[in-house]
Design a protein that fits this description.
This protein is α+β, with helices and mostly antiparallel strands. The protein contains eleven helices and eight strands. The strands form three sheets. A three-stranded antiparallel beta sheet has the order 1-2-3. The radius of gyration is 22 Å and the shape is flat.
């Protein structure tokens, strides 16, 4: 398989490894991106923390709260300029209020629902906003959470909605505590609540990578297992919320902070605008000019 410059560039952005190392990794794995990432990590050339997909699309996240219900949603647009538009901000609010009130099961159902007891559907409303703003806008995703009167939501938007986090703490009504956990999640980006949530297959795969990595470093096989055990603890600290150093107090883990409130983390959602989407390759000057000409 021919390895293109675009593939090398993508692998470099995902791993931080050198260009020639990325090219070799892709050649060794016949162009399989995931296997190439593992290849580089086994050689000690890539960081697990850089494995996440590239952020590309524009838009904003939004959180709507209504008593014991809350929703985190993401709406995408073509340029960052639109996110500062008052009509776009109103769209976010209206969509959030509608979803939290009507609880659709997915985006498709939400788009087909009537908005505010009118004949206009949510999709019609988005299309009318598109016509006014002159740019493609889409409701990409949302997640609804529900709680009891004994629990609390933590809502946090970072960078004007570039990152949105919604947490649910059970056993405490301290919203500030739930928000502190949400702020931590926005900053550190854990994948799971605890190590018990990590799939056994993912753990086994990580063990194999760490073992190969240690052997490639020339470590004696008799101490490799202990090395893997120590590095695996670090792996869990990187991806599991409760095992991370709390950003507001690095002397304690998130687990200790939550337990001090007599609470448990029931769930969390973290959206980062555009994650997993590809943005058209257009330079900033062209983007500015396209706005001026409208």
């Amino acid at each position: 398989m021919a390895i293109s410059a675009k593939m090398v560039k993508e692998l470099r952005e995902k791993t931080g490894a050198g260009m020639m190392d990325c090219k070799k990794a892709l050649e060794e794995t016949s162009g399989d991106m995931d296997k190439a990432i593992d290849f580089l990590r086994e050689k000690g050339m890539a960081s697990a923390a850089k494995k996440a997909g590239r952020i590309a699309a524009e838009g904003s996240t939004h959180i709507a709260l209504d008593g014991n219900k809350a929703v985190l949603l993401e709406v995408n647009c073509e340029t960052d300029f639109v996110t500062k538009n008052d009509q776009f901000k109103k769209l976010l609010e209206d969509l959030g209020n509608h979803i939290v009130a009507n609880e659709p099961k997915d985006v498709e159902e939400a788009l087909g629902q009537k908005l505010n007891d009118t004949d206009e559907t949510v999709e019609d409303y988005i299309n009318s906003t598109i016509a006014t703003i002159g740019e493609k806008i889409s409701l990409r995703r949302f997640t609804l959470l529900t709680k009891t009167d004994q629990d609390s939501f933590g809502a946090y938007l970072h960078m004007g909605g570039r990152i949105g986090v919604l947490t649910l703490l059970e056993g405490t009504t301290e919203e500030d505590a739930a928000k502190d956990v949400a702020m931590h999640i926005a900053a550190v980006n854990p994948k799971y609540i605890s190590r018990d949530d990590v799939d056994a297959e993912e753990v086994d795969k990580e063990k194999e990578i760490l073992k190969t990595q240690a052997l490639n470093e020339g470590k004696p096989e008799k101490i490799v297992e202990k090395m893997v055990e120590g590095r695996l603890r670090k792996f869990f600290e990187e991806i599991c919320l409760l095992e991370q150093d709390f950003v507001k107090d690095s002397d304690q883990k998130v687990k200790q902070f939550v337990e001090s409130k007599g609470a448990t983390v029931a769930s969390f959602i973290r959206y980062e605008v555009g994650e997993g989407l590809e943005k058209r390759e257009e330079n900033f000057a062209e983007e500015v000019m396209s706005q001026i000409k409208k």
